[in-house]
Amino acid sequence: MQEIATGRREYRMRGWQRALYILLGLFIGFIATFVFAAHAGPPLLMIPFAAIGAYLLVLALRSRLVMDGTRIEVRGASREQSADLSEVEGFRTISTRNGSFWKLQLKEGRGSLTIQKWFDCDDLRAWLQQLTDLDERDRKALLDQIEQNQELGATPEERLQALKQAKQWNIALWVVAIAAAIAALIPDTGWELPAVVVLAIVPAAALYLLNREPLLYAVGKSKRDPRNELSIALLASGIGLFLIGMRTDFVSWQPLLPKIVVAALAFLFCFYVFGRKGPRMQGFHVLVILSAVFYSFGLIAACDTLPDHAKSTDYAAQVVRKHYVSGRSTTYYLDFGPWGPFEDANKVSVPYGVYRDARPGDTVCFEVHPGALKAAWFRRVGCDAVEMGAAE
Fold first, then answer.
1. What is the count of structural domains for the chain?
2. In the predicted model, what is the mean pLDDT of the chain?
3. Domain range for residue 55?
4. pLDDT above 50: residue 391
5. How many CB atoms lie within 10 A of CB 98?
6. Of 271, 305, 339, at which residue does a domain stop?
7. Residue 375 in contact with residue 304, Cβ under 8 Å?
8. Which candidate, 133, 132, 123, places its Cα nearest to that of 4?
9. Three-class SS state of 260
10. Does 234 share its domain with 364?
11. CA–CA separation, 275 vs 287, rounded Å?
12. Residues 344-352, mean pLDDT to the nearest whole number
């Protein structure tokens, strides 16, 4: 274990990081100034840009780590935090999509102190080595609980083997969820309804495992937690159902919104009540809420369309124009005037091939279904294959 250096030392961001934050802050500040000076938008639009730009500039110029013997101080854009080695219970390493940082947990529940990785140096690591690694402590404690739990096996070896067997069940669950999501998204295979049923029950299976064996399974666990992470199966189920819902064209989502809210609340209730034996880290809340949104949206959409065997009504509409929207991906649209259930101008997303071949004045045919949950939905059909009941 390295000794803690004496004397006051001060550390700042690395030069390239500080320069990057300064340039980014100046650029965003320039956007705010342009919006205000050129009247390019509402004056209130300038405020968030100006605030973000100012924050980045202050963060780059002010943030620093100060170490003085056993005492440590962290300065950010707007606050200063400090603690002595004797006041700290231990540290955790927090990983996010944007990187990782250390969080010092103060004793007696007096809060925490965050140290960004841009302050990483030998002196800081030597200081941290004097502390308890709370992630490793929790990992060892959990493994000890597994080894001592007689319900998992007769010997410590058998109990640890149960953890490996749980990993196989977890892999099987998310493989089934991913396979069902893929099958549900392939059109005209006859597998859509069975695949949706599988996706609908995957969260129930995950919840059963989480409630029955909380020492073997978790949702939103820390990186070094030895338990098996069920979030892949949950997200695969939710996103699969969500994509099914997104590819359906509804006349209006409004009739489905109350049912989506009820389904999301039921999902959250089940995981927060029946999954209470699992960890309650930040990752748990994020994953469960995301899964609830995706799952409820897609499930209610599928319940409206898949059981809908009522007679449809056929319509013909003329293309007025076409356009596309670019972002992370490009979406192609055909624009129509009023037709069938639409009293105003409307647009329909189409594959690129349809978009490429379409011309203003072309006729496109649709069949409109009433929806099992009373939310009408429609799809494009060939005009030569339908008899127009109410052509526009």
1. 3
2. 86
3. 8-130
4. no
5. 6
6. 305
7. yes
8. 123
9. helix
10. no
11. 13
12. 90
